[in-house]
Specification:
Elements lengths: L2 H42 L9 H41 L4 H15 L3 H11 L3 E4 L2 E4 L2 H27 L2 H9 L4 H31 L11 H11 L7 H33 L1
Antiparallel strand pairs: 1-2
Helix pairs in contact: 1-9, 2-3, 2-5, 2-8, 3-5, 4-5, 5-7, 6-7, 7-9, 8-9
Length: 278
């Protein structure tokens, strides 16, 4: 191994060791903060109110909170799937040669990309019906389904921009080469351009999934019983004791952190891997 290659390998090993150390530190600080909040809640409670404790209450209501967290994950999965399908279609319309298709797609993209998520959530929740009448009767539309669709809209707009940027980043020579082989524009997109866009789009796609998963607790504002909503209901059932607020919400922070942070690390690794490959 040459000296240059050795130095590169050593620097990468040192960087990986440092990043691993930082990850452990972040998790450790979060755990220390959580247990510190439990001790603080115990100290703040009056002597006659120290039973049940915050940790005891949290253990009792843990299955209920985790059930709500499962709804957060389900909402994020469905919303991301819908956003990906709609975003691909919207992104392809943005690169269309026909202005009649490209202009409305550009407007829709900017509308949802530059609108606050909470405003979109309120708008969709109140515009969509509470139930749908079918020939065989009526079917109720749960609030979490409407919230899921609302969350998919801003992500759809950003995924369309990711796809448009990935398509435009492909060298024009590949379009010209495909055209010289008598490929149509659709065939060139399908067989030459889009397969190369996948590698470029995966890291930002994962980033947007992480942001989407972190945004799902906003649905609790409108009564959706996800993790935050269930935690609030648990605290109310335990007597609405103010000293429970910090440990309960810090537990939710740890819960989302444990799910999202590995995705962020994986995304960073893919970015480095594909940057080297390109």
């Amino acid at each position: 191994m040459s000296g240059t290659a050795f130095r590169i390998a050593r620097s990468r090993f040192a960087e990986g060791s440092f990043c691993s150390h930082v990850r452990w530190q972040l998790g450790l600080w979060l755990l220390l903060a959580f247990f510190g909040s439990l001790a603080l809640a115990y100290a703040q409670a009056a002597p006659e109110q120290r039973a049940p404790s915050a940790i005891g209450t949290l253990i009792v209501w843990l299955p209920f909170i985790l059930k709500g967290f499962g709804l957060n994950l389900l909402m994020s999965f469905i919303a991301m799937a819908v956003a990906t399908l709609l975003g691909i279609g919207l992104g392809l319309l943005q690169v269309s040669r026909a202005a009649v298709l490209r202009t409305p797609a550009w407007f829709v993209m900017h509308l949802f990309r530059n609108s606050p998520w909470l405003v979109i959530l309120f708008t969709v929740m109140f515009l969509l019906p509470f139930e749908i009448r079918l020939p065989g009767g009526t079917v109720a539309v749960p609030d979490w389904i409407k919230a899921t669709f609302a969350f998919s809209l801003p992500v759809m707009a950003n995924i369309s921009e990711i796809l448009r940027g990935a398509i435009n980043s492909i060298p024009k020579g590949q379009w010209e080469s495909a055209e010289s082989l008598a490929f149509t524009r659709g065939q060139t997109l399908r067989w030459v351009i889009l397969p190369q866009c996948v590698r470029r789009a995966i890291p930002p796609w994962m980033n947007w999934y992480a942001l989407l998963a972190l945004a799902t607790p906003m649905a609790s504002i409108l009564g959706v019983r996800e993790a935050v909503g269930n935690a609030q209901a648990a605290m109310e059932a335990a007597g609405a004791r103010p000293e429970f607020l910090f440990p309960f919400y810090l537990f939710l922070l740890c819960l989302f952190f444990a799910y999202i942070y590995p995705i962020a690390i994986w995304t960073r690794k893919l970015e480095r891997k594909y940057a080297v490959a390109n």
